[in-house]
Write a structure and sequence with these properties.
Length: 574
């Protein structure tokens, strides 16, 4: 069998339904094999970075590896940002790059390059992949493909990269017998930890659970909801945990962190016990004063990566385990028990904090459209959307603070990499991962321009993406940073920056579009946006340039001391 045919058929046997790519000479054998030998859809995009983000969006929705291809040289290097995004957010993906023929590589020669577009992509990708490898011998290809998919899913999920020279792709190989997939199980959680945790929860006056993105990447969201219902403890979440509980869940408190809901940060600061699941407690969650984050409470931390334990926040009781293994064991322990309940005084206190600090009042004096109010309004109009795919910037924080997700909706965004340009291509991948339902994109004017070319992919395939571009005509997040620390000198955020009329851009691609500039017109604009569930539509929402994201954690202070009431004592470095 031709090696490229084997690659195509193996991916199909692994359940891959779609691959994302931009054509190039070094991947033509594989593209031809996909078209001739499988029912896999080849989704052609207009930049390899978009292919990588699309594969990531597909993987986030399905929980199985997304696949993107890139040709040698610039095609391969253009994948790297998306590869890094998968690595930092623990998203399983298999990236396949074409390479020049084996006899055209420079190898140990003291030259820069031998073959045209020859690039050592494996060396570049190795720090941001779980495994990166070049297929040197065609007969090793079956073993490498099997290992790639297993590696992407085992332990902490993440990306792998396979670089395949052209002459290997066209070689004849002997297909091996099918190898059964390994079961994804982990050892039973430590009994001492589990007993101590449940004893501590029952004895706590102000317990909280902090739910992170690792619950989703560990495919444990359903088990988490069952666990929360059985345990009956309030839940705060990180940016990547927005969709773990529906907005109307009685257990849901809100988002914590640098731009977290004020009441949620206050509740965490007052808690006396914190169970951390699937979160690495990075600086955007804890602030710079980790001593204050850990003070006054016992922290139990569950994560699959031993390196994350007692890393920034020390003194935690730790359990190295897959989060699904932990949750299943915990659910078994709770089965048959009458659900406990935190002290009523604690629930009343959280309710009081929510009433005291409503998100819609944070920007009550903002000129023009209030972004937090806008997000609540969008939520009601977008009830049929399968997912909100959100770019990086101020709009990302407004969305995370205020969107009202129902039980079936997902919230996808780039967390660890924080890559502008993520949303549009990731939404394409998300739709292919969950077809037949529309997907809502929320982006800023700056980030939307990074991969605006994918409007052509949307138009060509008539994808029902509903795109909302919050246009404040600047790079708003950095502008806010410059206002705090650079005496409002707005180089490259306002000065040296501009944005087009996105209605005209969308129309040029054959996509219907509208603009809204006043709150009184929002409902009608959203009606237009969702009027045809089968067609793409772009809505441009004009936001005043000087609108900030509040609350914002004041660096150098406790996490419940937030701007604008408190000012930072240190300059933030992240």
């Amino acid at each position: 069998m031709k090696a490229s045919d084997y690659i195509a058929e193996t991916l199909e046997s692994r359940g891959v339904t779609d691959v994302f790519e931009l054509v190039g000479g070094m991947i033509t054998h594989m593209l031809d094999s996909f078209a001739q030998r499988t029912n896999i859809r080849v989704v052609s995009v207009h930049h390899e970075q978009a292919a990588a983000f699309a594969a990531e969006g597909y993987a986030r929705i399905r929980g199985t590896p997304g696949v993107a291809l890139g040709t040698s040289g610039p095609g391969a290097t253009n994948l790297l940002t998306g590869i890094g995004s998968c690595y930092f957010d623990s998203i399983p993906a298999v990236f396949i790059t074409g390479q020049v023929n084996r006899n055209e590589r420079k190898l140990d020669r003291k030259i820069r390059q031998l073959g045209f577009q020859e690039t050592d992509i494996v060396a570049m990708a190795r720090p941001i992949t779980k495994w990166a490898v070049t297929v040197e011998d065609p007969e090793t290809l079956p073993e490498i493909l099997d290992r790639a998919f297993e590696t992407a899913m085992e332990g902490r999920p993440g990306p792998v990269l396979i670089d395949i020279p052209m002459d290997v792709q066209r070689a004849e190989i002997e297909p091996p017998a099918a190898i059964p997939a390994k079961p994804r199980t982990g050892p039973k959680p430590d009994e001492v930890f589990m007993q101590g945790l449940f004893r501590a929860i029952r004895g706590a006056s102000r317990p909280l659970i902090l739910a992170g993105g690792g619950i989703r990447s560990g495919q444990a969201a359903a088990a988490f909801r069952q666990f929360v219902e059985a345990l009956n403890v309030p839940v705060v979440h990180s940016l990547l945990g927005v969709d773990l509980l529906p907005f109307d869940s009685p257990a849901r408190v809100g988002m914590i962190g640098s731009y977290g809901n004020r009441w949620a940060n206050a509740a965490l600061a007052e808690s006396d016990l914190l169970l951390v699941l699937g979160s690495r407690l990075d600086i955007r969650q804890t602030g710079s004063r980790t001593d204050l984050f850990g003070a006054g409470r016992t922290i139990y931390h569950v994560d699959c990566d031993a390196g994350e334990m007692n890393n920034r926040v020390t003194g935690c009781e730790t359990l190295v385990a897959r989060v699904d293994t932990f949750l299943n064991d915990a659910i078994d322990r709770l089965r048959g028990e009458t659900p406990g309940s935190p002290p009523q005084a604690w629930l009343d206190r959280i309710a009081t904090l929510k009433r005291q600090y409503p998100d819609t009042a944070e920007l009550k004096d903002a000129a023009g459209i209030n972004p937090n109010v806008l997000m609540h309004t969008i939520s009601k109009a977008a009830a049929s959307s399968a997912a909100f795919v959100v770019d990086v910037g101020q709009h990302q924080m407004w969305a995370a603070q205020s969107l009202e997700l129902n039980a079936s909706q997902r919230f996808l965004t780039s967390g660890g990499m924080g890559a502008m340009g993520f949303a549009l291509p990731a939404a394409i991948g998300a739709w292919y991962g969950a077809p037949c339902r529309c997907v809502t994109v929320i982006a800023g004017d700056g980030g939307f321009q990074l991969n605006v070319q994918e409007l052509q992919t949307i138009a060509r395939n008539c994808l029902p993406l509903k795109m909302i571009v919050l246009n404040n005509q600047c790079h708003g997040m950095v502008r806010q940073f410059q206002a705090s620390y650079f005496e409002s000198r707005f180089q490259s955020t306002v000065t040296g920056y501009s944005a087009p009329d996105f209605r005209k851009v969308a129309t040029a691609y054959g996509i219907a579009a509208a603009r809204v500039e006043a709150e009184r017109d929002i409902h009608e604009a959203l009606r237009q946006l969702y009027a045809d569930p089968a067609a793409p539509f772009l809505l441009e929402v004009m936001i005043d340039r000087d609108t900030n994201v509040y609350p914002k954690m004041a660096f150098g202070r406790s996490m419940d001391e937030m701007e604008p009431e408190f000012q930072s004592l240190d300059q933030e470095g992240t």
